[in-house]
Amino acid sequence: MKCTVCQSDWRRGKCTARRIGHRGSQVPAQSAQISPALTGTVTVPGDKSISHRALILGGIAVGETEVTGLLEGDDVLHTAECMRRMGATVTRVGEGHWRVRGVGVGGLIEPADILDMGNSGTGARLLMGLVAGHPVTAIFTGDASLNKRPMARVTEPLSRMGASFVGRAGGKLPMAVIGARDPMPIEYRLPVASAQVKSAILLAGLCAPGETTVIEPEPTRDHSERLLGHFGAEVRIVDAADGSRHVTLRGQPELIAAPVVVPGDPSSAAFPIVAALIVPGSDITVRNVGLNPLRVGLFDTLIEMGARIDYLDRRVAGGEPVADLRIRHSELKGVTVPAARAPSMIDEYPVLAVAAAFARGTTRMEGLAELRVKESDRLAAVAAGLAANGVTHEAGADYLVVQGTGRAPGGGTVATHMDHRIAMSFLVMGLASAQPVTVDDTHMIDTSFPGFGGLMTSLGAILS
Ligand code: S3P
């Protein structure tokens, strides 16, 4: 028998691979079937993007950073372990409650072993940026999915800052990052809308003298900028007349430990929210959902489609806007989602495609080229999942059109390709489709949403 996560031998109830953070598993495929009205109040785990950044910035700040609400998913646990290997003291105090004692900007130590980033593109790219600014060498690797993903998007600007890289053909992990002895500040215009690339450059820029500027043709999530400011760095943001955003960091600051309160992840909240919209009679509340304006594209789109989503008790927590969301089953209609909205909902297209299958009419999603280089080729995986479940659609190089008929037929088995969001999206589909939906592998769900199955069943979902 093989481990279904890494294909190593499975013996005596354990995976024989001894990779850091890898638990291995033999959990089989899972099915979702037509469920009664979903009801109740839930809280989703902490925001993945903010959790990575809290550990990274805490790890290079002076003093002890207290983090609450941290996502304890596998992706973030890999980042925690890698920060430890580079000198930070990272301790779990209680559920979601962590303390990080940092080494100071420029103070990373060279890791004695390979840095395994698991499934996490965010962890890998951000830490490659951080290492690039330090005079240390680190070798990065990941799982089969991460080792297929493009890294040239970060190695290109980081090379300009003085780092060098030795990796596989096509700029893939495993890769050695040889950090710059004297990093140089750069001004860099992002060729792809990517918060990971922006953040990698800013993290390298922390160790460079002078000002590092990233120009974003389309603004992407700004958690790095917000948290850098929170830890005492000087960050200037200018919105230019042409719609681009210029983010400038003054290098070599002293970062001072500061408490971080991590809000619930809107990208995780998306799953119970869409489930409640499509399961007749549902009425649920999801508490403490992060509503950073650069993350709410899905909610805006769903509301345009006719979703009944109420924002309750809007407030600011830990420097980010949050609210409790009440969601009721809704009759949805098809809409066109413009390419300009993609950066603010980039991770939500798989679950939007599911909502679109339950809407009436055509939903057209444009500007999806980046979906091809996520944890899987998400555009192809979504299209295959829709096809397996009888949903009429058309997928192009960078667009997806879904013909909604009010209800997806279901009845198919979906290949998840090691992609947590594909697994969760199609399980959501099965809760309201005419026939059950099966996904072939649910392990990866733990990378971003540990407890997904329990949370959904607590609302009334039937998963088996
Ligand atoms: C993330 C940025 C996005 C997103 C990912 C998290 C981040 O990736 O898809 O899940 O935390 O910066 P890109 O930067 O590749 O768009």
From TrEMBL:
It is found in: Cytoplasm. Residues 36-452 form the Enolpyruvate transferase domain. It catalyses: 3-phosphoshikimate + phosphoenolpyruvate = 5-O-(1-carboxyvinyl)-3-phosphoshikimate + phosphate. GO terms for molecular function: 3-phosphoshikimate 1-carboxyvinyltransferase activity. GO terms for biological process: amino acid biosynthetic process; aromatic amino acid family biosynthetic process; chorismate biosynthetic process. Keywords: Amino-acid biosynthesis, Aromatic amino acid biosynthesis, Cytoplasm, Transferase. It is an enzyme of class 2 (transferase). It comes from the Bacteria. The active site is at D347 (proton acceptor). 3-phosphoshikimate binds at K48, S49, R53, S194, Q196, D347, K374. Phosphoenolpyruvate binds at K48, G121, R149, Q196, R378, R421. Coiled coil: none annotated. Pathway: Metabolic intermediate biosynthesis; chorismate biosynthesis; chorismate from D-erythrose 4-phosphate and phosphoenolpyruvate: step 6/7. Gene3D superfamilies: Enolpyruvate transferase domain. GO terms for cellular component: cytoplasm. Its EC number is 2.5.1.19. Monomer. Catalyzes the transfer of the enolpyruvyl moiety of phosphoenolpyruvate (PEP) to the 5-hydroxyl of shikimate-3-phosphate (S3P) to produce enolpyruvyl shikimate-3-phosphate and inorganic phosphate. Belongs to the EPSP synthase family. This is 3-phosphoshikimate 1-carboxyvinyltransferase. It comes from Zavarzinia aquatilis.
